[in-house]
Write a structure and sequence with these properties.
It is built from 11 helices and 20 strands. With 461 residues, it is of the alpha+beta class. The two termini are 26 Å apart.
Length: 461
Amino acid sequence: MSVADYDGPMMSDPPGPTWDELADNDSRAVPEFLRGESWRDLGDEMLSVDRYTSPDFFRRECEKMWPNVWQFAARVEEMPEPGDYVLYENAGRSYLVVRQEDGSVRAFHNVCLHRGRKLRTESGWASDFTCPYHGFAWKTDGTIKTVPCRWDFPNMRDDDVKLPEAQAGVWAGYIFIKDNEGGPTLEEYLAPLPDHFARWRHEEAYTTAWVGKVIKANWKACAEAFMEAYHVSATHPQIMPFTGDANSKYMMWGDHVNLNITPFGVLSPQIEDAATEQDIIDNFLKYNGRVVEPGMTLTVAEGRTARASMGDHNRKRFGAMFGRDLDEASDAEVQDALTYNVFPNFSPWGGFQPTILYRWRPWPDQDHTLMEVRLLGRLKPGEEAPQPEMILLPEGGSFADHLGQLGNVLEQDMYNLPQVQAGMKVSKTGQLRLARYQESRVRHFQHTLDKYLAREEGDNG
């Protein structure tokens, strides 16, 4: 069922043009996979705050969900050479994601099989993984290399002490791991993302900035803050003069992938005052830290729209940045927020523009989240990507210190989230109410979580 077809209670047409109507006027053809409807009415049942505050609910996520989902663990530029490894930790488990001699990637549990010490506590390069406690050592392919005083383990075979291995897969420069066997392949799990992103070539992307911050809120509450544009008018009022918040479009595919498209270069339909196309551009340049640069100016020619003018400018600008001809790119693809989410915690933006990438991990419990924000550029032909490192902000640190105007917008979200967690803990009703359309991605996300939590022990399909 599409939102256009739904005629049930409490549903009415949003104000202003739909995103598809805006796309009809783009100066280049918008990809068909972004057109039309891919939305399901998932009802309006209330959600319990226990999903965010209960230690028992969190325990069930750690036991039944996290080991059975594909998780974004690293980008390929983090580990370009054999022996490079990334320490990936989440939900009480620790992994070493290792580049092999043949260029492939494998993932091993980061635990010594002798007395249980972690083998590594940070990412780096290694010829082997030697435990600092007693000196047991493993090759980078997970097979045992050295056992001090091997004579004192008479019944131990080499196969007994292979490092336990998780599944690993690579798509478009992103490295994923999945602990338990079974279930969909990585490509099946991500569908239709690979088809969509083939156009935007993330295999040519690389990390230009990477900032992490610990938020005093549940990981789901943090992720869900980026699944809808409904909060824009209250949380980010400064962007409304160039953001079609209530014109946003919501799409979902299967259990694992959904999308929010928020148009830029248009006036919010919730603003009643008139604005010229030049007013829209001027506000765009002042407050959008993603597709504009400091000091940038742009004049809207007579008879042109702000949206088309920004499209023309960004096709040239991003084409020069990426070393690519972007003449085919639609206005939407060089300015709109095409915010995908892959269950449970991977959110890459689409389009021909510097890419935002989010990841959320419980850090370490139901009340804290490590939120990571990456910016991805594109390699020009012949360029090699630098090896990135995350900047972990100290308590009280700001995304704005490293991400500029984008960071200022993110900090407005960060201001809300600890109070969301605190409010849910003292809620008298213990219930949350979701908008039927604008927050449908949140409900889609929660429905998928329920499917994992309902599985029987050993069911990883």
